[in-house]
Specification:
single chain; about 270 residues; alpha+beta; mRNA Triphosphatase Cet1, Chain A; 10 strands; about 25% helix
């Protein structure tokens, strides 16, 4: 399960939407410079699952900040990799300043996640790590959440293939496949998705990430495969695809009833309760 001992607090990220048919050739190119990260090794297609629960305000403040291209913007999300009771949940702040990404996160015991989002003050037993930076990240997350009055809005899932520089993780390349999204207004942190829809269905999201100088071979990669930078936000792309109206208070109020009815029709009731 990915932890944060390799997490870069500050880095640059460049995103591209690419057709799946060139992914294998790109992998061969990337393999000349990087190696699969610890969590990709030995997995089918070198990929592991990532689940995110994004928080936002009723008026979708963080979504609109991205759409409007605000220079100093952030997203709030809970990241998890499975639904086992003993697995941690990561409270994450992803802040963007132009192309520079600043990340803070804190691993929290799963049973504490709902209470913390509901306003409970963090206690030492809630945290996996006692490092001060992790507590500071959680405290900032809660402050930003409360200031926005943000709650759960969207659950997404995708398969990630990650390549990293062998010694310092200063360079990282990821391929994200099968990105699925659904509205979500609760904190049960399920891995099952009863009403998920795939976005970017004929594309992969390629991310080139680096902490120092732009690697020369990144330029070669972009030129060889004719890549064009674009927007490929998994949160905002999901909101836009599903429709902003599905994330407001009116839809939130009817969410439980509609979801229960859908699950009854599909036989999914009980596997992913509202």
């Amino acid at each position: 399960m990915p932890q944060d001992h390799h997490l870069q607090a500050q880095r640059f990220e460049l995103k591209y939407l690419i057709p799946p048919e060139i992914a294998r050739s790109m992998r061969e190119f990337v393999a000349c410079y990087l190696e699969p990260d610890d969590y990709s090794v030995g997995r089918p297609n070198l990929s592991y699952s990532i689940h995110n629960l994004y928080l936002d305000s009723d008026n979708l403040h963080t979504h609109h900040a991205t759409v409007n291209g605000d220079k100093n913007r952030f997203k709030l999300r809970l990241r998890y990799y499975d639904d086992r009771p003993g697995s941690p949940v990561f409270f994450e702040i992803k802040q963007r300043e132009n192309d520079c990404i600043l990340k803070q996160r804190c691993a929290v015991r799963r049973e504490a996640a709902s209470g913390l989002l509901a306003g409970q003050l963090p206690e030492p037993g809630h945290l996996i790590s006692r490092e001060p930076r992790h507590l500071a990240a959680l405290q900032r997350f809660i402050a930003l959440q409360q200031n926005l009055q943000a709650g759960p809005r969207l659950h997404n899932h995708y398969l990630r293939e990650a390549w990293v520089s062998p010694h310092d993780n200063s360079v990282r390349v990821t391929f994200d496949r099968k990105i699925r999204v659904e509205t979500c207004f609760h904190t049960r942190l399920n891995t099952e998705m009863a009403t998920a829809t795939q976005i970017y269905p004929d594309k992969l999201v390629l991310e080139l990430k680096f902490t120092g100088r732009y690697p020369n071979w990144f330029r070669d990669l972009v030129e060889r495969f004719g890549l064009m930078r674009g927007t490929a936000s998994k949160y905002c792309g999901g909101v836009a695809f599903l429709g902003e109206h599905r994330f407001g208070p009116a839809y939130h109020d009817s969410y439980g009833e509609n979801r229960a009815f859908y699950q009854m029709l599909t036989g999914a009731a009980g596997s992913n309760p509202a």
